[in-house]
Amino acid sequence: MLQTILHQLWNQRRQNGWIFLELLVVSFFLWTVIDPIYVLTANHAIDRGYDPEGLYVVNIGMYDETNGNFDPDMASDSMNLVAYTRLARIVREQPEVDSWAIAGNQSFPNSSLWSGTQVFADTASLHREEGYVHAQSYSFVALDGSNLLRTYGMKDARTSGDIRLPEQVEDKAFISERLAQRLFGTADAVGKKVYQSEDALEVAGVFRDFKHRDYEQPYPLIVTMYSEMYGSQYMPWWYNFVIRLKPGVDVSAFKQRFQQEVAPQLSVGNFYFDSLKEFSELSEDYAMKSGVTNKLRLQYALTGFALLCIFLGMVGTFWIRSNARRGEIGVMRSMGASQGCIVRQFLLEAWLLLTVAFVLVIPFLLYHAHVNGLYTVEMNDKFVPNPAYGQNRFGFHFTVVLALSYVVLMLIALVGTYVPVRRAARTLPVEALRDE
């Protein structure tokens, strides 16, 4: 059958020419639109490094001199500290709260802020200002049970167990596994020293890699701690309350009760309750604001458009071809060929056309990938991609997108071929030979 099909394709090369050219163009186009979908989806599938279930950020606002509710008698640092401490107590003492943290305003996933720092492994590289790792920085106040690592559900990189805070938190830090590997070549870094500027910090623990953005990859992260709050005059801009609910809490009931009963209590001094947001809500908001959501929608729309064009092209082409070859189909049926045999022959023809076109376009795709680069989610120019993730390895990345493009293209082409051919194959031999 294969020899007959090849002979048939060659004899009808002019009729097949335009669909062959369409397959060449669409194969290239489809690869370019599937590439970002693959990267964003692969990044999203990376373990977050924390458990977002039941996590909320309590945002507190602060009146200033331009607001009519501003109280100048409550504007001193000492009064603000007293008021903010009272707010912290109200939040943490809610019966639904399992754990909580006074976190820096950049220190929770999908926040609108991002803080970076340079981390050195030794004083020699520090003084030469080279050999550092650019890392993201989280901070929290370890006061009255405030524990960012426990609240987020961050786990020890070696044991996957809970991380305990040291009794003395000053001059201590926790670092991510990726940061430990970059600095020391191993995740066994507890007790080692790291340096930020001239400040020496002892590594109190190493946690699993942690994602700040859901559609990005984990960035090297360092978590520092303070035993008291600083910058009390600007607390709402420096700190947020992050809480984790106890297992089994009715989320909708908690949110309703918090808004009705707790929120009014959070107007103390010049502070006021601003919002209560779930981590999942923050993720959706950031994906929308950063353009990730629209990017995915656009790529899905372009992919759908390309596949629709392929489907209509294949249906139209094989509808015309099957009608033009009614006589051939009638002869085949009269000689005992089954409907399935005829359908398989036409499907094999479509598969051969598609495969040849796809193979011919691969060199152009390789050139495009080398010149323009594979799609990546831009973080910053200091980010060093982790080769452990397949999307960061050129060969694996290119091959996966190529395979996805081929499979999707093949399925659509075969379905677009099957519809008209199946109809033509069901024609009775007498009817098919009537016009011959």
From TrEMBL:
It is a multi-pass membrane protein. It comes from Caecibacteroides pullorum. Residues 82-260 form the MacB-like periplasmic core domain. The keyword Metal-binding does not apply. This is FtsX-like permease family protein. InterPro entries: ABC3_permease_C, MacB_PCD, Macrolide_Exporter_MacB. GO terms for cellular component: plasma membrane. Keywords: Cell membrane, Membrane, Transmembrane, Transmembrane helix. Belongs to the ABC-4 integral membrane protein family. The keyword Transmembrane applies. It comes from the Bacteria. It is found in: Cell membrane. Its main location: membrane. The chain crosses the membrane at residues 20-40, 298-320, 341-366, 394-419. It holds the Pfam family FtsX. One of its GO terms (molecular function) is transmembrane transporter activity. Residues 302-427 form the ABC3 transporter permease C-terminal domain.
